[in-house]
Amino acid sequence: MSESKRTITVLYFAAASSATGVAQEDILIPNNFKLSELSMLLVSRYAESDLEDILNTSNWSVNLEMVDDPKQVVLEDGDEVGVICPVSGG
What we know:
This protein has helices at residues 14-20, 35-45, 51-56; strands at 5-12, 24-30, 59-62, 65-66, 80-84. By secondary structure, it is α+β, with helices and mostly antiparallel strands.
């Protein structure tokens, strides 16, 4: 069987949306692609932005569920991944 590609949707919130200039996008990923690998892929797509710094302090959600350990999550075709930036308030 050949290596097939899967499509995920990445949702960018707050500072992540500002850094990328988009609120969401579809991205092709290979099979057995872990959520922990997504940061490097996104940073390479937006190398001229401060997205790397933003991702270092952000959390992730997959299909509306917060993720505790991105190394344990293998992304599947059709998954929706949210970049959840820290929020300050008063």
